[in-house]
């Protein structure tokens, strides 16, 4: 018995024992052990494995219930508004604005009824009046599908947290991308608003969320750009402004809430990496410098006789006189112009002032430098500067007058000390007798 107890491997946090070290290491990686460690830090007693399993099942049931509630989606076709909660939708149906819109729609449909049209009553009956029962019956399939999608997305996120190998992570990410919701061009990127057209959606995002498209005059594919931004939000769950540099988010609602709360309803366009990411949707070819600059007398004639654009190989380009400078990252055109690489733009943007090499300018610069540096100044120059500094003071003239008597007193004192020192042979103040060593 003593030998068996000596070979046991124990866990003090969970108060259990194991017969092998492998079982103990497996136990240390379990959620039960982590949970008991947190309870131990909070000075609480540990829970058993059965009790922990019951708590896990209760928490999963609670999360499923919350996902079902959070998956609610309703839309008022009359007011063109979408709601993600039952309370907000019911409040809208009972609001005065909705009732006024419903009354106007009813009056408009009644005025359009004609006795000559036999099916007018049926058309009026089919017109959406925003009835609560009818809207709920229409949105029930959408609510169920969205609730299932939210629940599956949470399961995938939970599986990603517990994934052990890289293959499992890639498989779960691919599954999440396939299940992710895609926004249409009429849906807002930052809220649940659904506009009638793409132009109305862009106007809504600009007015309600202050969305600004950088360099919009050079955008070649605006619809593709908005589609790509929507996929970043829905599929990758990435903030458009943080662009992966902030905290990780797991759902579309989390990304939208983050952008609205932080004021990040904007596109990241500051770093070079952000600009290159969106370069497929821009066309800056109109800003590229050509061989012929504006203002030259033969520029117009050259444009009229311009041949179609052709692509040259490296050998053909060298034959045409185009020189590639690999070391300097420059391209020399036959006209003599040099095209630099974008990596060196910080150096090309520098504008240095041309130094004046005339002798008079150089001499004046040296004189100024010598005057500012005391090491190059003469004694007379220093004295003149000191006198000028004293004169610039509020009572400078009085100070100069008071300075003259003090100088005379010091001079008399020095003369007297020299006379006494000569008589007593004590001119060297630092001298001492070389005795008692």
Automatic annotation (TrEMBL):
Annotated InterPro entries: Matrin/U1-like-C_Znf_C2H2, ZN622/Rei1/Reh1_Znf-C2H2, Znf622/Rei1/Reh1, Znf_C2H2_jaz, Znf_C2H2_sf, Znf_C2H2_type
GO molecular function terms listed in the Swiss-Prot or TrEMBL record: nucleic acid binding; zinc ion binding
Pfam families: zf-C2H2_2, zf-C2H2_jaz
Stretches assigned to coiled coil: none
Superkingdom of this protein's organism: Eukaryota
ATP-binding found in the keyword field: no
Species of provenance: Dimargaris verticillata
Homology family: Belongs to the REI1 family.
Domain C2H2-type: residue ranges: 11-33, 76-98
Residue ranges of the region described as Disordered: 90-144
Compartment(s): Cytoplasm
The name this protein goes by in its record: Pre-60S factor rei1
Record's GO cellular component terms: cytoplasm; preribosome, large subunit precursor
GO terms, biological process: ribosomal large subunit biogenesis
UniProt entry keywords in alphabetical sequence: Cytoplasm, Metal-binding, Repeat, Ribosome biogenesis, Zinc, Zinc-finger
Keyword Metal-binding: yes
Gene3D superfamilies in the record: Classic Zinc Finger
